[in-house]
Amino acid sequence: MVLFMLLDHVRETFFLHHQVPDPMIIGSTPPDLFFSRVLAHLCAPVFVFLTGLSAFLYASGKGDNARSAASGFLWRRGLFLVLLEVTVINFAWTFQFPPAKVFLQVIWILGLSMLALSGLLWLPRRWLIALGVAVVAGHNLLDAVHFSGGPLQVIWAVLHERAWIVISETMKARTSYPLLPWIGLIALGYAAGPWFLAQIQAAWRLRNILRVGVGLLVFFFVLRALNFYGDKPWITGESPLLTLMSFFNVTKYPPSLLFCSLTLGVGFLLLAALERVQHARWLTWIAVFGSAPMFFYIVHLYVLKFLYLGGEAIWGLNQGKFFGFASMGAVWVTAIVLALLLHPLVRAFANLKARRRDITWLKYL
């Protein structure tokens, strides 16, 4: 998932001349760009779900003090991530200080979701599941709710509507990731934790992962075909390819019910596949990025920014108002090369993190 994210951020850096809205406009989006973007859709929901799962596994190792320890850690780490988003990470995107615009993106929503889970984890597991399902399945009923100005608009922008919040005459914030459905996803991730305890038989876990993955995808295809709830309607295009693109053109901001069903369904099937090859050498190589994900996230943003500025200085604004690549093929090649180049650095930091557990702040990266 981290590598899919890298691909998407390379696209956002070097393909700005063909930026895509959410959901995408099928008639003006080339298929290679469309499906690259759809592939990257997997990242955020899987990240948030796995954050909830990781929180449960963290708690399971704390004995009688499990929930209290997990709640405290989630609260501290959540605050840390929110602060990181509006400072170090926002600067990587804008290179402005103080910034005129603050983009509240995936690390912001991870932080807020962790803050929410620090309280929700005290609920009984069945209530947590019910809450998670209700929020993910029902939040699209609120799509027609809007507020114009005032405190309610600010609250609603944070919770459910992607919008600008005016902070001062010289600064405004963009709620790129409205919070509400992500709370449902992190709650479901935490509730899934018991399946991944060491004492659970791998074969039993694998069967259930497959059932959930297939079930979510069947649900997606049926509800999407009915075309009445869960996202904006799809349409029959001028060709089978355009119709297919419209069918899979789901909304990420905030993540619709169909978006969550599709991405988590695929995510569960990938997880089942990885369970079967968990000792493969290639998977061990990829897993390095997951051993220090926040370090990789921060480093790759700054690397991309410096590469963009370097390209602009050498070749100028070769794509209208931007420097960029002429094709998505160049985006894919750049992402692969960057993964190869950054791997040793991430591995070195992951080894340091594992070796120096006495350095408290390292565990937050």
From TrEMBL:
Domain of life (superkingdom): Bacteria
Stretches that traverse the bilayer: 38-59, 79-96, 102-123, 130-159, 179-197, 209-230, 250-271, 283-303, 323-346
PANTHER family: HEPARAN-ALPHA-GLUCOSAMINIDE N-ACETYLTRANSFERASE CATALYTIC DOMAIN-CONTAINING PROTEIN, MEMBRANE PROTEIN-LIKE PROTEIN
Protein name: Uncharacterized membrane protein
Ranges where the Heparan-alpha-glucosaminide N-acetyltransferase catalytic domain occurs: 26-211
Keywords: Membrane, Transmembrane, Transmembrane helix
InterPro entries noted in UniProt: HGSNAT_cat
Matches recorded under Pfam families: HGSNAT_cat (PF07786)
